[in-house]
Specification:
alpha+beta; outer membrane lipoprotein receptor (LolB), chain A; TATA-Binding Protein; 2 domains; 6-stranded antiparallel sheet; globular; disordered N terminus
Length: 421
């Protein structure tokens, strides 16, 4: 294996590269663009086989290679699994903005993209993807005896859940050209492919980040360089981000997010099979099966205002970047403390109340034990509160109704709350 340069990049250099990206969102159907990045975890998808001998490349050159990648045709299979370290897998969705907010997922039935893609926030999943430029994409989640697919074909979006035999349909507004930029978009959630995760991680790179090239690997039979991103700051729950980049075309093939505490990867999405040839045109054909229930997106009007308000309560930047909380600064009731990987969002809860307690009469005594088991009681200059922990994102809810949340340690949250007083 040829040694690789391990030069660190600067925030300015990375910023110019990111601005030149050509195909930022082509892999996943734009209408269903993802499921919560900062809080999603994926198990190792495919063991690396061998360390190919490749020409030396610097970290800056490898980032430029990713940014310049213009591959718009591919098909393949990849695996996703989540390991947030929650006491109950079903709680994963409740930590995500928009989950259960009364949006399209509820009104759109079992086939609505938002709720189905939220399932990727826990467990292990196998997915198939096919892409033919910005106008045609297909993403399928494979179950043991079922399949869920979303097809975007020239501005028309179909989603089908074979288990419930339900169909969701949306169309681009009249007069649009049907391109990916014009296609109807579902509420923001989490990225679903290695490329999506890689772009979010690279967007967070700045002067608080170390970026190096750490050897080579083979992923899905393709030679790849390994780009490693690490926080320079202490106090972050993120240990490192490792991106396997196709040596030939610059497409991210695998993405692994490791927790600072060690153990199993929090995020690891990788192709097990990939082909950059043009997919068959039939891959993007869809007609509702006979007898299936079809829900039209333009008929879904109820609950939209409530959904919008819920999204503002925890703005979507909270789940869309690692760490990247700076975008929350202009949101009502939100103050961002710190920067980079140790950014913490301080959120005021309307009414100024913390968790209900058995002593207050708001919750049964039996339920209080369950609530206590989910978090750690903490005290400080701010008073007292409870820290709810995952392996990546932690949140402090104070007894006087404030929330401090970020990809940081419990101690960092307490210091932030103390400093806010």
């Amino acid at each position: 294996m040829a040694p690789n340069d391990s030069a660190e990049t600067t925030g300015e250099a990375t910023g110019t590269v990111v601005g030149r990206r050509k195909a930022a969102r082509y892999i996943v159907p734009v209408a269903v663009a993802g499921v919560a990045a900062a809080t999603i975890g994926l198990v190792p998808a495919l063991a690396n086989s061998g360390d190919p001998d490749l020409p030396k490349i610097s970290a800056q050159e490898l980032i430029e290679k990713i940014a310049a990648s213009d591959e718009e045709q591919l098909s393949g299979t990849f695996k996703i699994s989540t390991d947030l370290g929650l006491p109950l897998d079903g709680l994963a969705g409740s930590f995500l903005p928009g989950a259960g907010a009364g949006g399209e997922g509820e009104d759109g039935g079992a086939a609505a993209p938002q709720d189905k893609l939220m399932e990727l926030t826990s467990g292990t999943h196998t997915l198939r993807v096919a892409v033919d430029g910005p106008e045609k994409q297909r993403l399928s989640i494979l179950g043991q005896a079922s399949e869920y697919s979303v097809v975007h074909n020239k501005g028309e979006v179909w989603a089908y859940d074979s288990k419930s035999d339900e169909v969701y349909h949306a169309e681009a507004p009249e007069g649009r050209d049907g391109s990916a930029e014009e296609a109807p978009k579902a509420p923001k959630g989490v990225p679903a492919t290695p490329k999506d995760f890689a772009e979010q991680a690279l967007a967070a790179v700045g002067d608080t980040t170390s970026v190096t090239v750490d050897g080579t690997a083979q992923v899905a039979g393709r030679d790849a360089y390994q780009l490693v991103i690490k926080p320079k700051q202490s106090g972050s729950t993120v240990g490192s981000v490792r991106i396997a980049v196709d040596a030939e075309n610059g497409v991210p093939l695998k993405f692994t997010l490791a927790a600072a505490a060690g153990g199993k990867a929090v995020v690891d999405a990788g192709f097990t099979k990939v082909d950059f040839a043009k997919p068959a045109a039939s891959s993007f054909d869809f007609a509702p099966p006979k007898g299936a229930k079809v829900t039209e997106a333009d008929e879904l009007e109820t609950g939209k205002d409530e959904h919008g308000k819920a999204q503002k309560a925890l703005p979507d930047q909270l789940s869309g970047q690692i760490p990247g909380l700076e975008g929350l600064a202009d949101s009502e009731g939100v103050n961002v403390i710190g920067k980079g990987w140790t950014s913490i969002a301080a959120i005021e809860i309307p009414g100024g109340k913390g968790l209900p307690t058995a002593g207050s009469g708001d919750v049964p005594a039996e339920a209080q034990g369950f609530l206590d088991a989910l978090g750690d009681k903490v005290t400080g200059k701010f008073g007292s509160g409870t820290v709810f922990k995952t392996r990546l994102v932690n949140a402090l809810l104070t007894d006087d109704g404030k929330v401090y949340v970020g990809a940081v340690t419990k101690d960092a949250l307490v210091r932030a709350a103390d400093g806010a007083k």
